[in-house]
Structures are given as structure tokens and as C-alpha cells.
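hi! just following up on the protien thing from before. the input was this:
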Amino acid sequence: MTSRVAVSLAVLLLLLTLNAAAVPANAAGEYAKHFDALSKLSVAVAEAMPADQYGFRPHPESMNFGELMSHIATTNYQFCASLKDSSTPALPSPTAKDAVVKFLKNR
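and the predicted 3d structure came back as:
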């Protein structure tokens, strides 16, 4: 998978995640409806990107791939933590592929 395809998928995941989280009425139910599929897709994208490309940045002012994947996982954790009144786990280094993939999997 090329870096551009992986970044495009990551951006799509982010937009879908933000869209699902933006639903105010019964947000938890709406979010849960899409969470499993989006979670599997984000893990697949994170696993497909080569470790040496986690620092890939499509534009100098944008997040690199690892930061974007960590951001997606953090958004999921924060949303779920707010429902359970708990805190989010510590964010891994965005350039450590194995740590980011584990972070995405440990929902």
C-alpha cells in the first residue's frame, strides 16, 4: 500500500469518526453503531503502513501518519472515557508502529 493511499484512508477514518461523534442525540448509540467497523479499518490501515513511513507527512504543516493514527485512537478513547467518566490512556510515540497499532487495538 502506498503512503498516499494509507494517508487517504486515515483521513477518511478521521472524517468518519468525527462525523459519528458529532451526533448529539443518542451519540453513544450512534457511535457504537459504527465503532467496530471503523476500528477494524483503522487497525488495518495502521498495520498496512510500513514502520519507516510512520513519519510520512503529506504536507509540512500536517500531522504525520503516526500522529494521525494516534489522533484517531485518542479521539475514540476520549469519547468512550467521557461516557464512562474515566481517563484516557497515555498516548504512545507516534513513530512507533507497534505501539500505535496496539493503542488502536486496545479499545
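The helical segments are 3-21, 27-48, 65-84, 97-105.
The chain has a mean pLDDT of 77.
cheers
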